[in-house]
Structure formats: C-alpha cells, structure tokens
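I would like you to sit down with the record closing this message with an eye to the fold:
=====
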Amino acid sequence: MIASLMTVNISSLALADTTTPVVEISDYGPVGASTTTDSSSTAVVSGEGLVSETSASDVSTVVSATGTTDSSTVAETSSAATTETSAAETAAASVQDTTTVETTAETVTETTSVETTAATTTAAGNTTTNYFQSSGSAAGFLKTSLTASPEVNANFAILVDSDSNLVVAEKNCEAKMYPASMTKVMTLLVACEHITNLTDKVEITSDIVDYVNDNGASNCGFKSGEVVTVQDLLYGLILPSGADAALALVRYIAGSEEQFVNLMNQKAQELGISSTTHYTNTTGLYNDNHYTTAKDMALVMKYAAADPYASAVLSTRSYTTQPTNKHSSGLSFSNLFLKRIDTQSTGGTALMAKTGYVSKAGNCAVSYFTGASGKHYICVTGKTSGAWNVVYAHADLYKSYGK
C-alpha cells in the first residue's frame, strides 16, 4: 500500500534582524554564538527530564512559523521528497501508523534476522572486519549480480535505489562502522514519532551545556537557561548537529537520554536491523558498542525521508530560530553538506543530508538524492578524511550510478 505523505508547511519569512548570530560550522562541527539576555519561562528539562511546564499550546499537525527556513536552491517546503509528482514514491515507502513501512520490494519486519559471520576485506590499505555479512538478504535492500563495486574515497559506502530497494553500488556496506552524528537521523526519526506539539518550550539546563563543553561536542550555541521551542530543537539537532539540542529534546520526550536510547534501539528492532545496529547515546559520540552498517544507515534514512517532519528538517539548507531570552534575534543554522553538494555536478539534486565526525569514524555522511529521471537514491559513506571529500564521494557516486 502506497500512501502520500502529509505536507508540512514551513514559513519562508525571514526574521528581520541583521544582527542575528550565525553558528559557524567547521569540518569538525560548529562553534558557539554570542548571546544577549532577556527573560522568559516555560518547560524545564533537567537530567531527570521534564520538571515543570507553565504553558502549552494546542496540538499542531503543521510546523508552526516559530522559525524560518531558506528554500533558495531546492523546493524545501514540507518534505522535500513530497513536492514532486512522484511524491507517493518517496523513499519507496509509506508511513502506516508510524510504525510499519511497506516497501515495493519487501516488507521489513522486526522478525528479520541477520546471520552474523566474520569476513575480512581490504579497503584503502586498511583491513576491515565484516562482522555482519549476511548469509541471505539483509533487511531493507537487496544486492544483485548487477551491484557495482565502486572506486570511492571511503572505507564504507553504499548507494541504493530507494524506489526498488536494490543496492546499486557498495563497498563494505555490511561491515561494522561508527555512525558519529549520522546517529542523529535516528534520533530525529524517533523524536518526530513522539512529538505532539512543536511549539512547546524547553529550557537548556547548565548540565547540558557542561556536557557539550566537557565532550567537545558540536552544538547550536544555546546557553544555560535559554528557552527554546521543540521545533527549533529539531532543526538544531540536524543542521548544526547540536548535542545541546539533542539532549534537551530527548529529555523532553523520554525523561532521560537513557530512556530515549531504549526507544532508538526498539526502532532498530522494528526495522529489522537490531543485530547489526546498536545505540548507546543520542548524539553519536564514540562508544565501541554504538555502531551500525552503511546498509542499515541507508534504511534509517529511508524511513526518515518518509516522515513528514523529519524530511522537512533534513531537507532544509538554512534556518533561523525563534528569538529567545538569550538570543534576541535567534540563531541561524546551515546544512553545509547540502550547500556544498549543490556546487557539484551530480546529474540530479541532493534533497536531504546529515554528516558526522568523530576520530574513530572519520568524516561520514548519509544523503538522499533525486536523479534526472525522478528516481530516488540514498548514499552513505564512512571513514573518509575531510568534510569536502565526503561531498565529492557522494557527488561521484550519484553522477556515476544515479539515473
């Protein structure tokens, strides 16, 4: 059954304040932004979760205009994949009761199992152990005799045709890899399935700021005591890859990061990838027990692309938050991967993306692409050196194999 995704309206009005702080993003994440003080109060999230709430709005099914987006390059209103005439084919899946997606090639269920065997392959001079090579068809996408073995600047890579669920090209796609901040695609997906009011407000507590500083994590630049809408946390989670946004968001939803991680692992089980993907945190910080595969990461992106809220966030190139008690003109975020790949020759259009970096994972990224024919593709690369090299790798794969 194929069902059309709902349209999410995002305001294109810009906040008219030329002094808006901009979060600059380096190859290893964003740096902070300046602050101004003001006063406000609302829901407070501590290490134990939601403590108090002084106001709440009616449940909304449309993204409210509490922040602004820039759609200068691609039609980014709503889910980017839903604005074309092939909307019903987006990600080759439909959202059914938010828990089950029927695909055109196969139905993924939580009973899907992957027989784990060890196989060793060599990539770029490094030995990579393929802990998760499947003896049969792994969840989500199928390799065939036509699957190519591309020359790509990455230890791990996969390009899938999301419409047919076929693997077009791959390199160590079932080998264990660390997802770094690509983790936040799953964080976003699970969050969007549980949020009922985008205008709810959450306070950034001092322990969140301390955690970000202590771990050198990428962040939005939110300050202790800053009151932020749930919608702004969603965009802050993805565009600047904010760990501060992630922690505030998941505590608001589940009470603690630990409880939210349980939801993420439950979602992995639901998608049939729990034997090859496991989460220990919501931000992507390195942990040896926090892992995935390129193939699994592509499947997570497919489900995110089918969610109207998640796809709207992942497809946004620029966004300005609502003014807060700490930033009177809001904060401006950018998805640099999307802006960078827009400058490359790909033969189509990259619609959504999330990057990641930790030293163990190298530079990595997952992106969603529409070819000249209208077909949809998902690309994942891992263990590349340099943020631009990740862009080049995705652009080359799309140009070489996308139709």
